[in-house]
Specification:
Length: 52
């Protein structure tokens, strides 16, 4: 449970320990809520971003 954190799904790499919105001006998901993540290695493997 201690691993719970929040990440931006827009690809800017933003993350926080508390719920919030992205504040990166260059991010396509700016002002959108962070997504919950519970990874232990900070790699955010559960994120649904695709790298092609
Ligand atoms: Zn972002
Ligand atoms: Zn994570």
């Amino acid at each position: 449970m201690d691993n719970q954190h929040y990440i931006c799904a827009g690809g800017c790499g933003g993350e926080a320990d508390e719920p919030g919105v992205c504040k990166s001006e260059a991010c396509p998901d700016r002002n959108k809520p962070f997504k919950e993540c519970g990874c232990a290695d900070r790699k955010h493997n559960a994120a649904d971003k695709k790298e092609n």
